[in-house]
Amino acid sequence: MGLWKLRFTILGTLAVIISLSTLFFTVLLWWVGIDLLFLPLFVIIFNIVQWLIAPYLIDAIYHVREVSRSEEPALHDMVERLSSESGIKKPRVMIAQIPIPNAFAYSSPVAGSRVAITSGLRDALDDEEVEAVVGHELGHLKHRDVQVMMFVSILPAIFYYIYLTTFYSSLMRSRDDRGSGAAVIVGIASLVMYLILFLFTMHLSRLREYFADRHSVSVVDDGGRKLSEGLAKIVNYTHKMKRSRRDVSSHSSFKALFISDPDTVEADSAAITRAVGYRIDDRRLVEEQLSRKITGLDRLHELFSTHPNIVKRLRALQKLD
Q1: Within a 10 A sphere around the Cβ of 110, how many other Cβ atoms?
Q2: Does residue 264 sit within a domain?
């Protein structure tokens, strides 16, 4: 997908999400007789509060701490150099003490910009692959993906909350109560809107991953190869952790921030295994992926994922490289 086409697709998806949300809220609030000014006020306040406190929640959930230059001089130099290449201010360098190999970028006006890599990532990847992963995360900061996704992700959640509220409200009313029938209609409509917006939000999340991959390739020498091998190793390593029954799902609370979705490693690892077995440290990995057919099941699974299918993602990187 070309750069401008990717940008227009991202903006178009975002516009659809916001437009559908606003339209439905407008009709709903008009129907129940609530002042339409309530909608933007509610959304703005909710998102501002979430944006401000999210970094502190992430730090607590993932046991994240900032590391000084004296502790991690090479990592600091890497982040500083890639930040300069990206044209952004150097973020705070963080380490998350969790075993799964991953990385994420997050920010708020209060907490500032941060880029974190997990202890598991250092164990699983070579330094050059870590460099490509950091380049990807800096791409998220440059494109303000964190702010965009935090705003967009809350919209489906609001409709789901309306669905739950009206559902339980209808249960509390008698069957002859006219308000009960109205509550059921509102609840069903809200659930449908939640599902629609959820799918659009997942699509937007996958697009931003492609965009961040593209940024990594632009700022890291031989970035396509490095990031391809890094992604394959992340998937393979996480899959092995799941097979050994280590707890991976407990670290998926903010999986949209990760460079790779830990909840899709079963399908992603199977795709890699079908293509080249377990030889994930060879250039042949990417070459073999290009000839593999994406199945209908793969496409269906991808619809509900925050990240692209691993084979499609590696093919896109190959084209950039």
Answers
A1: 11
A2: yes
User: Which residues are part of the catalytic machinery?
Assistant: 137
Q: Where are the alpha helices (DSSP H) in 223-295?
A: 223-243, 265-276, 284-289
pLDDT lower than 70: segments of the chain: 1-44, 46-47, 165, 168-180, 242-257, 261-292, 321
Which pLDDT value is given to residue 318? 80
The number of domains in the chain is 1
Taking each continuous run of H as one helix and of E as one strand, the counts in the chain are 12, 4
145 token code pair:
């993906």
Cα 277 to the center of its chain, rounded Å: 27
Secondary structure (3-state) at 196? helix
Mean of pLDDT over the chain: 77
- Domain span at residue 247 reads 223-320
Q: What is the pLDDT of residues 16-42, one digit of tens each?
A: 666 566 666 656 655 655 554 565 566
Residues 66 and 95: their CA atoms lie apart, in Å, by 6
